[in-house]
Structure formats: structure tokens, C-alpha cells
């Protein structure tokens, strides 16, 4: 029970932060967006990873206020970056939302309200969802996704290939980007099976008119190979680790 109380307090007192990891166009190397990743700095000075506290947040229901907070924080940060320079004008920020958020919350209404209050266009936001959001309630998620598209948001399927892939939904739902999980990308140059999987996902995405992001790119050689295979975007330590908002803005100014 203790960790729930602490998690709630962390959100309220600013101990929860978003860091931002650049996602680059593999053809040009330019930053096109940032994925926001939650970081919890506890009072004892520890930095907890989302893999440690998201499951607790999901079980306790605190994932709903956490998701609301993340959307608000992403929009505020975009507004700050837009005031700092012109570099962020066409840049999107991606927010990870748990399947539970889509079941329990009116995400389109929330997003519309937060964006308008912060003066940010819907085309500046990407929502990353996982296959579990679709499995939970395909009919509802279909309507929600269409409403999000109407706002102008980009929709990305996170961790693609690691969940219960039902290929029928891929063509029915308005998914813009498939994110190829790091477990297939990292190490693929030394593993023919991984290359085969990545190729298959890329050709599936192409056939369905979707763009692709490869996660976990740590070397130039990997970026070049993925570009040659037709992958659209790349994300990983080659470009940058996730950065606090000011450093992310600086990265953008220097790189683009
Ligand atoms: O930051 P890190 O790479 O450790 O993230 C681990 C996982 O936690 C990633 O899969 C990411 O999608 C997820 N995650 C990060 N931030 C958030 C968040 O704000 N909300 C949700 N639901 N998941 C997040
Ligand atoms: O897929 P998810 O949204 O869960 O992925 C984000 C997580 O992956 C974050 O925890 C981030 O720190 C981590 N990450 C991002 N890029 C790389 C990388 O190039 N290599 C490794 N090992 N981890 C990465
Ligand atoms: Mn993600
Ligand atoms: Na992922």
C-alpha cells in the first residue's frame, strides 16, 4: 500500500518527470519527434524506471491520473520549446498510454482539452499504445482511435511483435506507425532470424501504408542497414539516451 501513496504523492509534488528520447528520420538523420518516458525520482534519491512502477500504477488504478499527467506534461513542454526557438515547430512528442487508460478514461476528450488549453495542435502529439489495448476491447478502441485521428494525433503501435499480434486489426485500425521492439532490432546484424523478423515487419507495414520506427539502435551500421531496408525512423542510444526537457530542446537545436 505504501508505494501507491508514494506514487500519488510523486505525481503531485513534481517527483515524477518526463524525459525525452529523440526519434530520427533514418534517411536524413533529422529529429522528427521525441518519445516521452516517465522517471520517478524518489525522496531517497533513487531513480525508478517505468518498468518498476507502471505495473503498480496499473494495479492500483493510479495509471489513469499518471496518464493524464503525462499528456499535460508533454503539451506543456511543447509549449515551452515553441517559446524557446523555432526548432520544435514541426516536432511531435509521443506519450505512452496503458491499455487501462483507454478503457477507463475518455482519452480524446482529455487530449482535446489539454491541447487547447496549452495552445498546441493535435498534429504535435503521438500516442503510443500496445497490442493489449486492442485485445482488451477492439470495438471501443477502434472508435477511440478514430476520434484521436480526428484531432490530428499520430497513432503508434509500441512493442510490435511482442504481444498477441492479431493481424486482422492492423488493417482495420488507423495505425500510422509500427514500432519494432528493441528485442528484434538490437543484435539483428549477428542474427539471421532477427533480420528475417525485421524484414517481415517492414514489408507488412509497407503493404498496409504504415511508417516504421526501429527501437534500440546503438550503432551507425545498424542505422544504415535499417535505412537500406526501408525503415522510416530510428530511436536509440546512437542518437541519444532519454533527456530532460531542456537538454532535449538543445539536442534538437544542434541536430536539426
Ligand atoms: O524509460 P524506459 O525505457 O525504462 O521505459 C520502459 C517502458 O515503460 C517502455 O516500454 C515505455 O513504453 C514504458 N513507459 C515509459 N513511460 C511511460 C508512461 O508515462 N506511461 C506508460 N503507460 N508507460 C510508460
Ligand atoms: O519500448 P519502450 O517504450 O518500452 O522503450 C523505451 C525504453 O528503452 C527506455 O527505457 C529506454 O531507456 C530504452 N532504450 C532506448 N533506446 C535504447 C537503446 O538504444 N538501447 C537500450 N539498451 N535501451 C534503450
Ligand atoms: Mn514506447
Ligand atoms: Na517499446
TrEMBL record:
All copies of domain EAL, residue ranges: 1-256
Stated name of the protein: Diguanylate cyclase/phosphodiesterase
Amino acid at each position: 500500500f505504501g508505494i501507491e501513496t508514494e506514487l500519488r504523492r510523486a505525481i503531485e509534488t513534481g517527483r515524477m518527470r518526463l524525459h525525452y528520447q529523440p526519434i530520427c528520420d533514418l534517411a536524413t538523420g533529422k529529429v522528427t519527434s521525441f518519445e516521452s518516458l516517465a522517471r520517478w525520482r524518489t525522496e531517497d534519491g533513487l531513480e525508478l524506471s517505468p518498468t518498476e512502477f507502471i505495473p503498480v500504477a496499473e494495479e492500483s488504478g493510479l495509471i489513469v491520473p499518471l496518464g493524464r499527467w503525462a499528456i499535460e506534461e508533454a503539451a506543456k513542454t511543447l509549449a515551452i520549446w515553441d517559446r524557446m526557438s523555432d526548432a520544435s515547430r514541426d516536432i511531435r512528442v509521443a506519450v505512452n498510454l496503458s491499455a487501462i487508460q483507454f478503457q477507463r478514461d475518455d482519452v480524446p476528450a482529455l487530449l482535446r482539452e489539454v491541447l487547447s488549453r496549452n495552445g498546441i495542435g493535435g498534429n504535435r502529439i503521438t500516442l503510443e499504445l500496445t497490442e493489449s489495448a486492442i485485445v482488451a476491447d477492439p470495438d471501443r478502441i477502434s472508435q477511440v482511435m478514430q476520434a484521436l485521428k480526428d484531432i490530428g494525433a499520430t497513432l503508434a503501435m509500441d512493442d510490435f511483435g511482442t504481444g498477441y499480434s492479431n493481424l486482422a486489426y492492423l488493417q482495420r485500425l488507423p495505425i500510422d506507425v509500427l514500432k519494432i521492439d528493441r528485442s528484434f532490432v538490437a543484435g539483428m546484424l549477428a542474427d539471421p532470424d532477427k533480420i528475417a523478423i525485421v524484414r517481415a515487419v517492414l514489408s507488412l507495414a509497407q503493404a498496409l501504408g504504415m511508417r516504421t520506427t526501429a527501437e534500440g539502435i546503438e550503432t551507425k551500421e545498424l542505422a544504415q542497414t535499417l535505412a537500406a531496408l526501408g525503415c522510416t525512423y530510428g530511436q536509440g542510444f546512437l542518437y541519444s539516451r532519454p533527456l530532460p526537457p531542456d537538454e532535449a530542446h538543445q539536442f534538437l537545436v544542434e541536430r536539426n
